[in-house]
Amino acid sequence: MKKIKPTIVVFGCTGTVGREVMHQLNACDCIVRGVLRxxxxxxxxxTGTWPSNITYVSADLNSSGQLKxxxxxxxxxxxxxxxxxxxxxxxxxxxxxARQSGIKRIVKLSAPIVQSPAKVExxxxxxxxxDYLSQNMGEFCCLRPHSFxxxxxxxxxxxxxxxxIYGALGNAQRNYVDCRDVATVAVNYLLATEELKQPxxxxxxxxxxxxxxMAAKLSRITGSKIEYVDxxxxxxxxxxxxxxxxxxxxxxxIVELDDLAIKVPEPDKDTITNLILRKxxxxxxxxxECRHLFKRKPLWKLLF
Length: 304
Known about the structure:
Blueprint: E1 7-11, H1 16-26, E2 31-36, E3 54-58, H2 64-71, E4 76-79, H3 87-100, E5 105-109, H4 121-136, E6 139-145, H5 156-162, E7 164-167, E8 174-175, H6 179-191, E9 200-203, E10 208-209, H7 211-222, E11 227-230, H8 233-243, H9 248-263, H10 273-276, H11 283-289, H12 300-303
Parallel strand pairs: 1-2, 1-4, 2-3, 4-5, 5-6, 6-9, 7-11
Antiparallel strand pairs: 8-10
Helix pairs in contact: 1-6, 2-3, 3-4, 8-9
């Protein structure tokens, strides 16, 4: 008798990690259902070679009925919504819909557990969701990466046009992991044939790197001088809100992450080799692949 293929529902399927989860599940013996928040949200258009195991549905994250329809008949769910002040409510709604629809397993992209004296508001949001997940789902795992290599793409404008990286990190180190390696861990847990025994795993990359070291790496890979400029947390917050026009909650989050790395040293060795059965990607690999994103550009192009 042939084994029935599992159906995996993926929330956040168009994001940095979610897209990669979809891509990797495409190569697996399963049915994949990506969930869009808006029916008009762009997604890959089917072609003659479109993978037959991938489909998409749309659901309002505030609609329990639509969420239950998105989850119907599925076996496992990847839980990821965009970071926002509504994240707790959105993900609680999804957990409720998953439980009511009979889904047995949730793999959630979460955040590191932050110990005092550091404070990270977004981590507190994740903690509330994680607690709710543990109380309402029998089988689950919370993935806890520190930071993604791909987050450096937020700095492309100041690097491209001014050759500068601004931060309040001092000489502290940040641990970065490639989103593709995080996706591999998620896929392995989503498709595991055994019951998940670990409710939480820290996902650390192979290196902890200072912003000064990142500036040197970027200088070498782009062939142009890139400088790290260390400023105060207040100055960084002002730049993020006044120049980058970020919402205050997101600017606060970025400042808090620098403060966290100063107060609580991040891992300097990887924790995922045994989870993905290979060594994780290193920062130099990511930078080589994406060097075009950081190449210097004439300032006049920014003005016109």
